[in-house]
């Protein structure tokens, strides 16, 4: 079976919703923390927690009104239909916030697609409406990401499954190590080149679908040896 996992910010949605949200509502703090995150000075959990705390007050409606300006890649709906027709399981993995992912997918009529992300809560704290991020999918041995994409891939896949990963940046560096087929753009291309990971470059999901149509026609889809070995190593460690 083929299983497709894809990033959300910058991938399913052409823009980075989380980054744009924090740049607008957390201002200078967001700009500083983006550089610290890219420089590996802070973890994603720290990044999200600090920026949520930096927003003095925000109501859920204000949050959703801002999110409503963002739309998915214009080819993603057709790609999701292609996956359904081919009985390919499609899952979105994001190190962003579930509230805006759910909203964007719902606006596009795609809320049936399963996704995993960091959790969002809107709480009244000392008379102020606050946005709070929590992290239900962390990994006990690695706190680099809030939502461990690697674990979702390994926990939902069988040994003989072919793993496809589609992404563009920071939080995709780890999961591509475990994927048999990688589609990359932007920062993820350089990471794949640095780590000698074979990839297909893409600009949008139309590009991905064309290549996937070719792949599913093959009599046999081979596992990438390095990815299969990396998956086995994790399972052996327990």
Count the E strands. Answer: 7
Beta-strand residue percentage: 15-25%
Any idea what the CATH superfamily is called?
Answer: HAD superfamily/HAD-like
User: Helicity, in percent?
Assistant: 40-55%
User: Spans of 5+ residues with little confidence (pLDDT < 50)?
Assistant: none
- Domain module count: 1
Question: How would you explain this protein's 3D organization?
Answer:
There is one protein chain. The protein is an alpha/beta fold. It has a single domain (2-237), classed as 3-Layer(aba) Sandwich (Rossmann fold), CATH 3.40.50. The protein contains 10 helices and 7 strands. The chain has helices at residues 17-25, 28-38, 44-54, 60-67, 76-85, 98-107, 149-155, 187-194, 205-216, 225-237, and strands at residues 2-6, 89-97, 115-125, 128-134, 162-167, 181-184, 200-201. A 7-stranded mixed β-sheet has the order 4-3-2-1-5-6-7, sandwiched between helices. It is globular. The relative contact order is 0.16. The model has no long low-confidence stretch (mean pLDDT 93).
